Amino acid sequence: MLTFEGQKIQGVEDITAKLTSLPFDKRRHVISTIDSQPSTLTGGIVVFVSGSLQLPGEEHHLRYSQMFHLVSTLEGNFFVQNDIFRLNYG
Amino acid sequence: MLTFEGQKIQGVEDITAKLTSLPFDKRRHVISTIDSQPSTLTGGIVVFVSGSLQLPGEEHHLRYSQMFHLVSTLEGNFFVQNDIFRLNYG
């Protein structure tokens, strides 16, 4: 599940459609902090990232924060179960 | 588990000591956004909050983001399993 600026999007197809619609292939993306913790009951990991984006043609950086909840499968892989993204307006 | 500005703190006693050491009883605290998603495998909830803090004697607001992972007990209560806090520096 993805929550992007408050918009809730569920399922692989809809999330892929949303992410590919964003102009992120042209942006500069700088990560400032990464924090992670074990999410022990699920064998997963919660990850919290903050950073800034610079969009093409824009001088100013946009600050953002994002969290992921990575959950492990029985085969030892991980998938993104939860993804929440917010711009941090000054 | 609490990660506060990159400092990792584990266990009820140490987290309580950290939180009570902060000057949050005197701050103004304004929440801008709250996003939440079910964390289905655990019967829990992930919550993502952004907002601003104003400390006593300071004119400027500090922007922050914070995530919680709430996990349910067999009795139907919730506890905070993961808590990550970051100030968003401009």
UniProtKB/TrEMBL annotation, chains A, B:
Keywords: Cytoplasm, Nucleus, Protein transport, Transport. It is found in: Cytoplasm; Nucleus; Nucleus envelope. The keyword Transport applies. Transmembrane segments: none annotated. Residues 1-87 form the NTF2 domain. InterPro entries: NTF2, NTF2-like_dom_sf, NTF2_dom, Nuclear_transport_factor_2_euk. Its main location: cytoplasm. It comes from the Eukaryota. Pfam families: NTF2 (PF02136). One of its GO terms (biological process) is mRNA transport. GO terms for cellular component: cytoplasm; nuclear envelope. Interacts with RAN1. Facilitates protein transport into the nucleus. Interacts with various nucleoporins and with Ran-GDP. Could be part of a multicomponent system of cytosolic factors that assemble at the pore complex during nuclear import. Has a role in nuclear-cytoplasmic transport of proteins and mRNAs. This is Nuclear transport factor 2B.
